[in-house]
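Quick one:
INPUT:
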């Protein structure tokens, strides 16, 4: 979508020239020849940037700056001033102008100034509404996200939520697999019944068997009383088996039998008890490779993997990182009794630029860290953990000398990485890279 520029300039020929020239550079421009008519058009036109001349027939450009700054502080104003009139330019900045450009206008310089102003407006709007957006953004239960990969996940989970079939949820550690499982449960007809979760990798084989299937008094040492297993505890609801790829191979036949027959026999008894439970499982491992290696039963795999839902890593979720950060900041601020309301522009760039190997869990931890250190309403780079503000993580991989590439190739790879993070938003990519859009275009054309 083209950025919209509202031009306020009393010279009709100048208006026409600016409108045509900006149109050729990818902007959408509309012009007005007086300050009052331009101001009146702001609400209906909803421009991204105002380009105003200082000298107007009714109110001057300085007053336009002041009114826009007071009424719409996130709408940037670029002022055109006479060449060499720095005092007027400084006064315009003090009146609230975002930038200024001197006449005669260099269209390339103007386009760059407008690009920066558009990006400023986009980021400012994003940062100021993030807390509200976290509440109103597309979501599924406790999951939030506006990125395409998350919308696709929401659509998939919505389709299968009320089917009752077994689902295998895959994804990296910390990506939010249990949150996805809870969303499936809360969107199903079982939502009023228990959601019971167990991590299969943290318990010994004996304890895991007892936890899942239950036991009777005297079944083993320390079995001082009868105890229901989690299959019975979750009756009517959902049982979530986290890290299922680590389930002991020796117990897998028993788990398969219980799932197939929908009856469980506690340790130490011959009695079986029916249950009605939906099974959800999750893993961060390549479970099909485990099947091929003989570490996981193929028949159990197919029983659990009726359908798969993959939770994408945070690095593939673009600007969702800021949306999630806002949610975590709001939660942490409430818990810590602080008045931290958002993230400043520089910190937002750091959050977008970081690869988040620990995914959503790491982001939550980082925001808790930042809120604890914050001295102002907005999180700054100084509040973030050092590994996020440094760039060392970008060079973590150690290459064999034969795999090393030129600086030019590494630069191109990094540019492509940033474009991937920003989901193709070249303006935001240029800002993160701290180069102007014209330079980014030139590099992209050269590499292609």
């Amino acid at each position: 979508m083209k950025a919209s520029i509202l031009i306020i300039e009393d010279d009709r020929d100048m208006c026409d020239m600016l409108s045509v020239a900006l149109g050729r550079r990818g902007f959408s421009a509309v012009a007005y020849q007086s300050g009052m008519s331009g101001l009146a058009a702001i609400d209906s036109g909803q421009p991204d940037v105002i380009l105003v001349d200082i000298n107007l027939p009714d109110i001057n450009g300085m007053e336009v700056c002041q009114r826009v700054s007071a009424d719409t502080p996130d709408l940037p104003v670029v002022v055109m001033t006479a060449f060499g009139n720095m005092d007027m330019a400084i006064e315009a900045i003090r009146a609230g102008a975002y930038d200024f450009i001197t006449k005669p206008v260099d269209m390339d310089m103007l386009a760059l100034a407008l690009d920066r102003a558009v990006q400023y407006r986009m980021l400012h709007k994003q940062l100021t509404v993030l807390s509200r957006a976290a509440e109103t953004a597309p979501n599924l239960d406790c999951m939030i996200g506006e990125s395409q990969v998350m919308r696709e996940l929401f659509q998939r989970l919505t389709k299968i939520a009320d089917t009752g079939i077994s689902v295998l949820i895959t994804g990296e550690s910390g990506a939010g697999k249990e949150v996805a499982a809870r969303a499936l449960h809360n969107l199903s007809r079982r939502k009023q019944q228990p959601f019971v979760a167990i991590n299969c990798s943290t318990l010994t084989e004996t304890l895991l068997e007892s936890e899942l299937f239950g036991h009777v008094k005297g079944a083993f040492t320390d079995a001082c009383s009868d105890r229901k297993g989690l299959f019975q505890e979750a009756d009517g609801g959902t049982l979530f088996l986290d890290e299922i790829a680590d389930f002991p191979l020796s117990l897998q036949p028993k788990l398969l039998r219980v799932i197939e027959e929908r009856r469980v026999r506690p340790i130490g008894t011959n009695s079986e008890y029916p249950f009605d439970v939906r099974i959800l499982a999750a893993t961060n491992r390549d479970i099909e490779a485990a099947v091929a290696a003989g570490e996981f039963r193929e028949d159990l795999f197919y029983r659990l993997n009726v359908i798969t839902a993959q939770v994408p890593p945070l690095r593939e979720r673009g600007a969702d990182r800021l949306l999630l950060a806002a949610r975590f900041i709001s939660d942490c601020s409430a818990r810590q009794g602080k008045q931290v309301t958002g993230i400043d522009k520089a910190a937002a760039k750091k959050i977008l630029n970081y690869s988040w190997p620990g995914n959503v869990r790491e982001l939550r931890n980082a925001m808790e860290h930042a809120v604890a250190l914050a001295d102002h309403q907005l999180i700054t780079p100084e509040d973030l953990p050092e590994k996020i503000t440094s760039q060392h993580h970008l060079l973590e991989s150690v290459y064999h000398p034969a795999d090393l590439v030129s600086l030019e190739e590494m630069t191109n790879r990094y540019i492509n990485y940033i474009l991937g993070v920003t989901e193709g938003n070249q303006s935001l990519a240029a800002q993160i890279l701290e180069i102007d859009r014209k330079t980014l275009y030139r590099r992209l054309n050269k590499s292609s």
